[in-house]
Amino acid sequence: MTDIVKDNACSAVLTLKKGEGRTIKAGGSWIYDNEVDRIDGEYKDGNILRIEDFDGYPMGWGFINSASKIRVRMMTRDADAEINDAFLYNRVKNAWEYRKAVIDISSCRVIFGEADFLPGLVIDKYEDVLVVESLALGIDILKERIIEILKELMQADGITIRGVYERSDAKVRLKEGMERRKGFIGEEFDTAVQIVENGVKYNVDIVNGQKTGFFLDQKGNRKAVQDLLCRLSAGNPSVSVLDCFTHTGSFALNAAVGGAGSVEAVDVSELAIDEARRNAELNGVTDRMTFTCADVLDLLPKYVEEGRLYDVVILDPPAFTKSRETIKKAMKGYREINIRGLKLVKSGGYFATCSCSHFMDQELFTEVIAQAAKAAHKRLRQIEFRTQAPDHPILWAGDEMSYYLKFIIFQVTDEK
C-alpha cells in the first residue's frame, strides 16, 4: 500500500518571525500568514512540513496552504515524530477509542478537527453511515485514507459502515482555495438514515440537512431537558413547553417524550417544520405537539403582548456572530431574545437557553443573560450549566474553535 501520508510530507522548513507563533506556543493549532518569516526548500500546498521558531527551535509538523490566511495547521507538536501511515492510523484510532469511552457510539461525532489533532476534518457517524466535512487542503488529501482506517477500526468492533457521504460544502472552503464539494465517497447508497438518541427517533437528512445533517453536539443537553420534563410531568401532566428555533424538533421531541402535556415547536424554515412533524409522527407524540412556521424574533414579542405563559421555554438560536467584529451586535441580539423568552415563562417555571457561537464566550453569554433577566424583571436560579457533548471535546490551552456551545437551565421567578 502506498504511504500517502509519508508521500505528502516534504523536507521544507517554515520559520516563524521573531516574537510570533504565540498561538501555537500556548497550545493552539494555527499559524497565520503574517507570522511566517520564510520557507526554505520545495513544497506544494497541502504538504506537511517542519515548523521552527525564529532561532531554529523545533515546533513540530503541520499542513501548509499559501492560499489561506491560516498558513499552517499543526498536525503534531512532536518534532521527532515520523509522519507516515502508522502516525495517521494512531491518530484515528485514538479518536475512535476516545468516543467508545465517553459516549453512546450508535450516532456520534467520531472526529472533531483540531480537538482530535486532525485539523480541518469532521466525521459524524449516523448508525451505519459516515458523513465527512473537510475544510482544509492538507487533511483533504488524507481524508479517504482516514475513512479507510475508521471503517477498519469499526469493522473490528462489529460495526459495518454501508456508505460514506461528503458534506464539504461550507463557504469556508473557498477561503482555503478549495471548491465546495458534496456527494458520495465510494459507492452510492440509500441516504435515508434513522437514528435513536436518548430513546428519541429522528430521520437525518445527510444530503440537505444543516451541517452534516444533525446537531449531535446537543445530545446531553437534550437529555437534560427530557429528564427535567419527566420530573415535572410526574406531578403535572399538563406542563406546557415552547421550543424556539426547533429546527427538526429535537428539543421539542425530548420535551414531549419526557411527558410534557403540550409542546409548541417554532422555526422559520418550512422544510425544518415539515421534518419536525415527521419526527413527531415517528415518536408517536403528534397529539401533544403543535408546529408554528414563523420568525422567532417577530413571534416572541407578539406572544409577550398577548400575555402567553409557558411552564418551560427553550431557546436554541443559530450563532448570532461568527467573528469578533460583530460581538457587540450579537450581544444585543442575544439580550433581546432572552428578554422575550424570559417574559413568557410562568413564575416558578423553567428556562433553557444557549449560544453556539465560539466568539460569544462563557463570560459574555452569562453577562447577557443577567442583563436580560434584569430587564425582564425576573430572578434566575441556575439548575445546571452545560457545554457540548463529549464527542465534541474541548481542547484547552489555545485551541481556536473547539469550545463553542454554552447551555444553561434556570428556574425563573418574578421579582418580589
Kindly describe this structure.
By secondary structure, the protein is an alpha/beta fold. It has 3 domains: about 5-75, Archaeosine Trna-guanine Transglycosylase, Chain: A, domain 4, CATH 2.30.130.10; about 85-190, 2-Layer Sandwich (Transcription Regulator spoIIAA), CATH 3.30.750; about 215-415, Vaccinia Virus protein VP39 (Rossmann fold). It has 11 helices and 20 strands. It has helices at about 5-10, 20-25, 85-100, 135-155, 170-175, 220-235, 250-255, 270-285, 295-305, 325-345, 360-375; strands at about 10-15, 30, 35-40, 50, 60-65, 70-75, 105-110, 120-125, 130-135, 165-170, 180-185, 190-195, 200-205, 240-245, 260-265, 290-295, 310-315, 345-355, 380-385, 405-415. It has a 7-stranded mixed beta sheet, with helices on both faces. Strands 2-6-5-4-1-3 form a 6-stranded mixed beta sheet. Helix 6 packs parallel to helix 7 (about 250-255) and helix 10 packs across helix 11. The longest helix has 20 residues, at about 135-155. The chain starts with a helix and ends with a strand. The model has no long low-confidence stretch (mean pLDDT about 95).
- Gyration radius, in Å: 23 Å
Shape: globular
Low-confidence stretches: none
Q: State the CATH class of the largest domain.
A: Alpha Beta
Distance from first to last alpha carbon? 73 Å
Taking the sheet with the most strands, its summary is: 7 strands, mixed
Write down the domain tally: 3
What is the annotated CATH architecture of the largest domain?
3-Layer(aba) Sandwich
Number of strands: 20
CATH topology of the largest domain: Rossmann fold
The side-by-side strand order for the widest beta sheet comes to 16-15-14-17-18-20-19
> Please, how many helices?
11
Structural class assignment? alpha/beta
